[in-house]
Amino acid sequence: MRTKIVSAQLALAAVAAAWAAASLWPLLAVPVAAALLTPRPLSRRRPAPHDTAALLRHLHPGGALTATTLDGTELAVLEDIDGLAAVLELGDPVTLASEPLPPLPLPAALLPTTAGDAPEIRVQLLITVTPPTEDAAYRSLTGGRVPARRRVLLTVRARRSGGYARATLEQSLLAAVKRATRQLQRAEVPVQALSTASALEAVEESAGYTPDSPTPLHETRSAVRLGPHDHAAFALTSPGHAALLTKLGALPTSSTTLAVTATSRSPAVETAVRLTAPADTPAALRQAEEALRQAGVSLHRLAGTRLEGLSRTLPFGAAATGPTAALTGLLTDDRLLASDRLPSGLPNRRRRNATDHGSRTGRPPTGDRPPTGPATASSGESAESDAGPTSLDLALGGDGVVLGLDRHAAPIPIRLFRRLPTRVTLIATLRCARLLITRAATTGAEVVIQSTDPRAWAPLLQSGRPTSITVVDRATNLRTPTPTRPQLVVFDSGPAPAPHPWRTTLLARPHLRPSDVEALHESDLVLLQSLPEPQAILAADALGLHESAAWLPKVGPDMLAIVITGRSIRWANLAPPRHKGHVANR
Questions:
Q1: What is the value of pTM for the model shown?
Q2: Do the beta carbons of residue 378 and residue 56 sit within 8 Å?
Q3: φ and ψ at 149, to 5 degrees?
Q4: Nearest to 418 by CA among 149, 206, 152, 199
């Protein structure tokens, strides 16, 4: 009942404001008001988007993904009813060594100062965590601290509210992107702009979306079902992002996304979390929500439709969408389209005057200040405040497949799956190979083993093992891997499978032979157990590990040498530390 009353009030306000504008706005206000007054069904089904671009059009009606150039690099730009948006990626997504990121600057520190009547700029930090599947042995090894994947994105948006031309919006957007990039680089955080192809992939991964899924987009009162996943978005009403982030890897979800949004016209910071779970386990979302509440996190459903909640927590988010955006434009006397795209028959109203602008944004009126140039966001540095923290206290990075523990019993994760084809050579016992394959499968990868001796790998197919492992005579007709479903192809004989992004090929050998030296040269990652002295010398010469050659024959059977070709070598203990009181066999 309360929803109906609010909808009626908004509808009447829209019509009244449009009528008072004495323009053609009533022609748009009436259908919007009718839409608000129309009862919403409890469940709505929409056709399945046939690709990720179609999904974006579902989430941003009337939007279009284009590209521009920033410092010689392609930058994807989404233009929708709310404005223009671009996405940056934080961290190095293709490095094998998964090191923690430096502390991130506060989102407000990434915002530009605004010069005069400039477009509003919003930045949204988007942190998506994918936990490993539940496995007691792997959890014992990692302590539940290492996610299978953690991706950090930053959406920068220039909002149309105020009636700005597209050229002005784009100029402001590029200035804001440069400012954010510069601030992140000062904090020693790697950052890169996403191209059109990379941006579509980021949306697909964040939504857990598979374009080949025939499942329609299904919106209910509690969640959005998109392909094989259900999504539920919540606003957080309590501080403590770091405390929340430490809980994300332990939630019973397929992924959890934290969204922190700041705007140039308000000191307030909006925080939201989106829970994503397999559609075939409907209780998972309720369990995850309850786990957050028990951890002391105060949250409530995001306002608007569930589809809007999904859109606001995806790349290119931080915008008003659908009817909400249209209503915002009507009530604030803003135009839905840029002035250079308005039909000639429509009046081209000037933006609100400075006094009105100040009263609506909370800023003081500009009075008789001299003009400050084009109405764009300045890329200059904002004034620093002595109060409060200067960075987000979030532990980011350190995701991937944990191969073992270092000498301090800390996990050593490796990004075994990345958007580049990855080649690995493993010289180890069959027991070690099985162990590492199981750990890779635990992080959600599909594992295909090509072998002439299937019996050697039979223990991996026993009950209780990951069901994503198969053994074949020849790895042909492989499924195309994706960020949400990477692939590990293990082979001990025959030709290597074709390389592909998100596919890692692993050559498994019990001994190092001279014929394997070429494979060592071509590998991105080499994993070595203890080797006899002749094999150790052969490996050290091939990999340039002359100082470490003496250690390879001496290390114990539970030690693994992790060699990132051309970079470094690390030593890992394959097994977790024994409990106190355990007496080792002598």
A1: 0.80
A2: no
A3: -155, 140
A4: 149
For 460, counting Cβ atoms within 10 Å of its Cβ (0-12 exposed, 13-18 middle, 19+ buried), the class is buried
299 has a pLDDT exceeding 90 = no
Q: Which three-class secondary structure state does DSSP give residue 572?
A: strand
Average pLDDT over residues 323-345: 39
In three-state secondary structure terms, 108 is: helix
Which range is least confidently modeled, 18-22, 57-61, 333-337, 557-561?
A: 333-337
Q: 160 is written with which tokens? A: 């149309």
What is the percent of the chain with per-residue pLDDT over 70, rounded to a whole number?
73
pLDDT tens by residue, 46-87? 665 678 888 888 888 888 999 999 999 999 999 999 999 999
User: In which region does residue 107 sit, left (phi positive, over 0), alpha (psi from -120 to 50) or beta (all else)?
Assistant: alpha
Question: pLDDT at residue 415 above 90?
Answer: yes
Helix %, strand %, coil % of the chain (to 5): 30, 25, 45
Q: Say what the pLDDT of residue 241 is.
A: 57
How many other CB atoms sit within 10 Å of the CB of residue 54?
Answer: 13
Phi and psi angles of residue 178, each rounded to the nearest 5 degrees, phi first: -60, -40
What average pLDDT score do residues 314-330 get?
63
CA angle, 288 then 292 then 297, to 5°: 155
CA distance 257 to 126: 7
Four-point Cα dihedral 324, 330, 331, 334, nearest 10 = 110
Place of tokens 């969408």: 321
DSSP H or E segment with residue 7: helix 2-20
| 520 contacts 569 by C-beta, under 8 angstroms | no
Q: Is 416 exposed, middle or buried (0-12, 13-18, 19+ CB in 10 A)?
A: buried
| One-character DSSP codes across 21-51 | TTSSHHHHHHHHHHHHHSPPPS-EEEPPPSS
Q: Cα separation of 168 and 178, whole Å?
A: 16
Give, in order, the Cα–Cα distances in Å from 151 to each of 254, 395, 502: 14, 12, 15
Strand partners, 85: 78, 157
Cβ atoms of 288 and 256 closer than 8 Å: yes
CA nearest to 123, candidates 379, 268, 318, 385: 318
Contact 271, 241 (CB under 8 A): yes
Distance, CA of 202 to CA of 192 (rounded, Å)? 13
Q: Which two tokens stand for residue 236?
A: 């957080």
More confident position, 20 or 335? 20
* Of the candidates 450, 462, 466, 429, the residue with the CA atom closest to the CA atom of residue 505: 450
Q: Which residue has the higher pLDDT, 537 or 341?
A: 537
Q: How much is the pLDDT for 578?
A: 61
- How much is the pLDDT for 367? 37
Of 240 and 84, which is predicted with more confidence?
84
Q: Which 3-state string (H, E, C) describes 304-319?
A: CCHHHHHHHCCCCCCC
Query: What are 424's strand-pairing partners?
Result: 506, 525
pLDDT at 114 over 90: no
Return the sign of the alpha-carbon dihedral for residues 301, 235, 242, 261: positive
List the beta bridge partners of residue 405: 411, 573
Taking the C-alpha atoms of residue 473 and residue 459, their distance in angstroms, rounded to an integer, is 17
